[in-house]
Amino acid sequence: MLESLSAQPLARARTAVIAVVVAVCALPSVLCLFGFDFGSSGTGLGAEAGVQTEAGTTEAMFGALSGSFTHTILEWTAASLALFTVILAFVHFRIKRDAVTPIIGVALFWAGCTDAFHTLAADRLILATADNQDLIPFTWAISRTFNAIIPLTALAMVFFVRRFDKETAARRSFAIVLVVSLLLGVAAYAVIQYCATSTQLPKTMFPDALFTRPWDVFPLGIYLVSGLVIYPLFARGTKSLFAFALWLSVIPDAATQFHMAFGSTALFDNHFNIAHFIKIIAYLIPCLGLVLDYVRGYEEEERAKRHLQVAQRKLQEQTRRLEASNRELQNFATVAAHDLQEPLRKIQAFSSRIQQKYVQHLPPAGHDYFDRVTGAAERMSALIADLLSFAQIQSRAKPYQPIDLNVVVQEVLCDLEARIEESGGVVNVANLPMVEADPSQMRQLFQNLLGNALKFRRTGVQPVIDVVATHVDEFRALQDSAVFGEQDSPCCEIHVSDNGIGFSPDHLKKIFALFQRLHNRAQYEGTGIGLAVCRKIAERHSGAITAHSAPGEGATFVVRLPLRQKEAA
Amino acid sequence: MKTNSGITVLMADDDPDDCLLTQDAWDDCKIENELRFVHDGEELLAYLRHKGKYCDPATAPRPGLILLDLNMPRMDGREALAEIKGDPNLRQIPVVVLTTSSVDEDILRAYDLGVSSFVTKPVTFDRLMKTIGDLGNYWLKLVELPPVV
Q1: Do the domain assignments include residue A349?
Q2: Mutate to test the interface with B, among A341, A344, A345, A347 (most CBs of B within 10 A)
Q3: Is the Cβ of B104 closer than 8 Å to some Cβ of chain A?
Q4: Who has the most CB within 10 Å: A85, A349, A492, B51?
Q5: Are A290 and A415 members of one domain?
Q6: Using CB atoms, which residue from B100, B124, B126 is nearest to A342?
Q7: Is residue A11 in some structural domain?
Q8: CA nearest B99 in A: which residue?
Q9: Within 10 Å of residue A527's Cβ, how many Cβ atoms?
Q10: DSSP for residue A408
Q11: What range defines the domain where residue A159 resides?
Q12: What is the pLDDT of residues A195-215, one digit of tens each?
């Protein structure tokens, strides 16, 4: 979405940038048409200059060396930009772990180094054996060739690196960068070594020919091929401004070579200086590309952060609303249950008044009706009491504490003793774990589960109930149950199995819903709150409950509980 | 010789059903004392202070015991209780809270304000009768109430 939105202006911006670069590269030539001459006119040190004093000699020397100075300044600016580029490229690598940028950065740096060597040799600051008239143009041609080839070599390596999957590339990227840097460095050094030690360098300048400096034609060709074929391929696959800048830098590089190959006839002449100036642009562009990559990366990060903040605020707002509505619902349940009890109490009270005072005036059918009124009122009273207790699972929750489920189950079995005895049932309890939970709610949970297992027994079959626990390393959602909160803590799973009447799997969802019953009142008593309470207790503990069963085959209820709770209740 | 048989009991409760049931229970328990009703806190205070329609002390005798519901319109039992216990002329009258509430906070607050007992309204009529019988036996037969002057 964002990509497609920004694609249009991005393409426009690229066109504009290309136009600017072309204009800058063309500017010196245009100015030449208007009579400007960028050549350095050295005055020479001949006798006609009239050198008499020592100060005069120095002055004359400066004049004679002005071309060399200009050359040095231009070259040094270019070499410095190469240094900045490689530093930025490594910073980029440190942040993004992408080996492509430093490989190309290093290539540019070594190219800059050959430029620096060319300058130092030209200034006679390092020992070189050949004559300057040959050395300068030859080392220039060599460094330009190197400059044209080395990024291509780097690109070839990049393609090689890209063959790795992302993970391997990230892991090996540092080693790759190191090896590539070293290889390129060795290549650069070999070139420098060769130039510095050769006594005889090939002739490179032919002032009267069409190609005044034919040695510069070769790098020009490489630049053209790179610019027209290779870099576009590289830049297409990436959004990186650095890649685009690299491609763009071919324009000034090629322009530089044009000036040299077809224009320059002597050291430090007009075309010579223009070429050197444009070369600075060629180094500047990748450097700026990297800087803009940072800016863009930073902006993207900021935008992402803002998006995240907005999303977070929305989420908070939603949570707040949800909590509010939850509270309201909770209050509603409590208040409703409370207020419903009031009139119900009257119905019960006045019914019993009638039955006490006017029983003799009622015909037998009236007695029956009255019994039904009383029974209905009692059931409603039970429902309301259950509703209140259901609502109170959340509102009257006690803090979590470590509890031994063995103790809880034993207590529950004590409470159920009469019913177990009456049904002749057997309850087998395996060793159960310690969990962090609300003790009274755990008790209620087992009370309901074991109570159900006893209640829904098959007639004529002795109830056998098994309670076992298993350890679960990772919390997974149980089938057909909601999971509250993200759980990665270890859990336990408690299975309560019976040999009772069971239920059809179709009813699985139904049995955990409030006041849902699968049997009529005559068969089994109860309001249908038990399993809803179990579900709510499990969910409040960031756990879950489910069951599996088939009619007549008993049922197994599975409760999953985290061993530790993340936060206080 | 107890003189409590002549005293009036005043019940403040907005619920006419509860009033009726209490009266029924009162009669069934054969308590001879007169049971009178007011229906909110303001009416209760008007009665006690002989204001408005209760201006004649002859027709509105000072009660020897007050049965007070907490949840009432206009002025509820809690406010009325605070008024009574803050009034030097009224605070000797024993007040028994008879309410549906069984919230700890209400119980604590009521005793804090100086009620004599806190009783939760029973749900069934049988239990109500028992409660009324017990209250009658205790307050109207066993204890000495402050003399009415």
Answers
A1: no
A2: A345
A3: no
A4: A85
A5: no
A6: B100
A7: no
A8: A342
A9: 19
A10: H
A11: 65-295
A12: 777 777 777 777 777 788 888
**pLDDT tens column, B88-116:** 999 999 999 998 877 888 899 999 999 99
Q: How far is CA A137 from CA A74, A203, A426, A549, in A?
A: 15, 9, 104, 92
Question: How far does A483 lie from chain B, in Å, by closest CA?
Answer: 34
SS3 B145: coil
| Amino acid identity at A147 | N
Total of domains in chain A: 2
Boundary-marking domain end, from A266, A295, A324: A295
B58 touches chain A (CB under 8 A): no
Task: Mark whether A266 and A411 lie in a shared domain.
Answer: no
Tokens 């859990």 found at: A491
B128 contacts on A by Cβ (under 8 Å) = 349
Q: What is the pTM of this model?
A: 0.56
A142 with A255, same domain: the answer is: yes
Interchain pair B124, A350: CB under 8 A: no
**Contact between B17 and A350 using a beta-carbon 8 Å cutoff:** yes
Domain residue limits, chain B: 4-142
Of A341, A342, A349, the CB nearest to B21: A349
With beta carbons under 8 A apart, name residues in chain B contacting A341. Answer: 100
Q: Is A477 part of any domain?
A: yes
- Considering the domain architecture, whether residues A277 and A419 belong to the same structural domain is answered as no
What are the pLDDT digits (tens) for A37-93?
A: 888 765 555 544 455 677 778 888 888 888 888 889 999 999 999 999 999 988 888
Residue A247 covered by a domain: yes
Q: How many CB pairs under 8 A join A and B?
A: 26
CATH of domain B4-142: 3.40.50.2300
Rounded to the nearest 10 degrees, the angle between the axes of helix A54-96 and helix A270-357 is: 30
Q: Give the closest-approach CA distance of A341 to chain B in angstroms.
A: 9
Enumerate the residues of chain B whose CB falls inside 8 A of the CB of residue A356. Answer: 125
Q: Tell me the chain B residues in contact with residue A342 when contact means C-beta distances shorter than 8 Å.
A: 15, 100
* Of A295, A328, A344, the domain-final residue: A295
- Angstrom distance (rounded) from CA A509 to CA A498: 19
In A, which residues are within 8 Å of B19 by CB distance? none
C-beta separation of A397 from A569 below 8 A: yes
How is the beta sheet containing A491-497 ordered, strand by strand?
A: A426-429, A464-472, A491-497, A555-562, A544-549
CB atoms under 10 Å from CB of A138, counted, come to: 22
Q: Which of B13, B125, B130 to mutate to test the interface with A (most CBs of A within 10 A)?
A: B125
The domain spanning residue A465 has which CATH number? 3.30.565.10
